[in-house]
Amino acid sequence: MQLLDIRNLTIELRTSDTVIRAVDRVSLSLKEGEVHALVGESGSGKSLIAKAIVGVLNKRWHITADRMHWRGVDLMRLSSEQRRKIVGQDIAMIYQDPSRCLDPTAKIFDQIAETLPEIQSKGFFLKRNRQRKDRVKALIHKVGIKDHEKVLTSYPHELSEGVCQKVMIAMAIARTPKLLIADEPTTALESTTRAQVFRLLKSLNQLKNMSILMISHELEEIVNWSHGMHVLYCGQMVEAGPTGKIFKQPRHPYTQALLKSLPDYEQGLAHKEPFYALKGTIPTLQHLPIGCRLGPRCPQAQKACVVTPPLTKQHGHSYACHFPLIKAMK
Amino acid sequence: MMQPLLKVQALSKSFNLRAGLFSRKRFEVLKNISFCLNQGETLAIIGETGSGKSTLAKLLSGADSADSGQILLDGTIIEDKGIRDQQCRHIRMIFQDSEASLNPGLTIGDMLDDCLQYNSDLDKETRANKISATLHKVGLLNDHQHYYPHMFSGGQLQRVALARALILDPKVVVLDEALSSLDPSVRAQTVNLLLKLQQDTGLSYILITHHLSLVRHISDHLVVLDHGEIVESGKTETIFGQPQSKVTQKLLSC
């Protein structure tokens, strides 16, 4: 069953003189139990999409979509109370900057306890308190923090970035959501902790059948266990499809450049040989090129590229390019 | 045998931590660190957080002083038991967050000019030539010296930081997580730039990063730190092929 189905999501920022289109007609669908990755460079609108799904973007952003279905219910048509109820129950999000997203004035225990669902048992209040404590302790152990006494009684600023990240994850999985949106969950962590976090997310996906929408720009970490991949460039969806297929044969020049910048992927690259990189940098949102936004940087750009290319779909692998790469990569 | 460019001998550093109301506890961050770096080579330092990597970077670049041990550059002692001879000429450092490490109130040209004014006795004209030459070297234009840091994108700022490091013609550049906050394609560009500079001018790098595949690609030698001690060191390929110690195996396995 389709868990999340988004068609032509557009997010615009209206300034006094112009309209800036930060996300341009992005479609995304997610089945139950799948892990999807949303990759792209910073400023490509990955976090905006995540925030639009959860509904935490502020009023200045103008969101339109042909449909945004959550298990058959259109989120766009609901009142904000109803929407909050659904989202609060089923969707959880791990935010990008953990130490800044936690409440600096509350202890970790109180913050986690707040996210716990109501305890059903009819015990006396002391008993309920103990139960809550046990639940919090269990959660914190689950994400790999051993020293629970110290962590639970401290404030966010006393903890390292890695531990804060783990606390965030504990808060996100407290309600066992159906969909977990992880916005760059491992940027602050070193390789061993990073592997630990990925192991945890993977086991949640397999054991609890939790769907995960993973946002990251570190491709090599998500390759092995994501089912689908969506590549964004400057707010446009350039390529989407099953991860294996995209890796075997990228169709869009940007995806190819992204893959080729990975040292692991290019096996033939000699020691200290320069990487393949596109010239230039990402344009700012105020000066977006018309048509295909990769245009000025694209090695294959031609005259037709000033018209936005439509999304072509082939066996579940879709790409938006007038001149897709046909030949398999070396 | 050729003399190594940079030689670090028995470097130690400890901090005082507060243990009680009046008592202090000594906390050894670095214990007896020694390694060598040849010209035109790259040394990578890996380890978990809290293993003393960043402290080592600070000691090398002269931002902090060691308790004991020596740093030798080209055979001459530049730091002996915490006393530094030359300040920051030959070993320069690039920080992780280039946006935060550049002064927002100065144009790029002024900032580079300050570096030259304080560290050399060149006259105004030579300084101006030097600034434009350095900007050109890192792939920026001469006009960029009138820009302020906020007018650049993240990748360009990293180039500015590199220009600031290179303007004093250093022999060693310390990159403390300088590549990890960049986007993949910008990172590829920056790595290409670093490699090209190394080929052209024989610059040496000390690379501190979590990114293991990058370490494997661009470094010649590898040092693995754990709780302030070197647990393993040697050629990158050998260590990646056959890690000897448990710490390295754990680091490389994921």
Give the secondary structure arrangement, pairings included.
The complex is a heterodimer of chains A (330) and B (254).
Chain A: E1 2-14, E2 19-31, E3 35-39, H1 46-54, E4 61-64, E5 67-70, E6 73-74, H2 80-90, E7 91-94, H3 98-101, H4 108-115, H5 125-142, H6 148-152, H7 161-173, E8 179-183, H8 191-207, E9 211-216, H9 219-222, E10 228-233, E11 236-242, H10 243-248, H11 253-260, E12 312-314, E13 317-319
Parallel strand pairs in A: 3-9, 3-10, 7-8, 8-9
Antiparallel strand pairs in A: 1-2, 1-4, 1-5, 5-6, 10-11, 11-13, 12-13
Helix pairs in contact in A: 4-7
Chain B: E1 6-18, E2 24-37, E3 42-47, H1 53-61, E4 68-73, E5 76-80, E6 83-84, E7 91-94, H2 98-101, H3 108-119, H4 124-137, H5 154-166, E8 172-176, H6 184-201, E9 204-208, H7 212-218, E10 221-226, E11 229-235, H8 236-241, H9 246-253
Parallel strand pairs in B: 3-9, 3-10, 7-8, 8-9
Antiparallel strand pairs in B: 1-2, 1-4, 4-5, 5-6, 10-11
Helix pairs in contact in B: 5-6
Could you write a compact summary of the structure shown?
Chain A is 31% helix and 23% strand. Chain A has 330 residues and is of the alpha/beta class. Chain B has a single domain (6-253), classed as P-loop containing nucleotide triphosphate hydrolases (Rossmann fold), CATH 3.40.50.
Q: Can you characterise this structure?
A:
The complex is a heterodimer of chains A (330) and B (254). Chain A contains eleven helices and 13 strands. Chain A has helices at 46-54, 80-90, 98-101, 108-115, 125-142, 148-152, 161-173, 191-207, 219-222, 243-248, 253-260; strands spanning 2-14, 19-31, 35-39, 61-64, 67-70, 73-74, 91-94, 179-183, 211-216, 228-233, 236-242, 312-314, 317-319. Chain B is α/β, with parallel strands linked by helices and 254 residues long. In chain B, 36% of the residues lie in helices and 29% in strands. In chain B, helix 5 runs parallel beside helix 6 (184-201). Chain B is globular. The mean pLDDT of chain B is 83. The chains are: A alpha/beta (330), B alpha/beta (254). Chains A and B meet through helix 8 and helix 11 of A and helix 5, helix 6 and helix 7 of B.
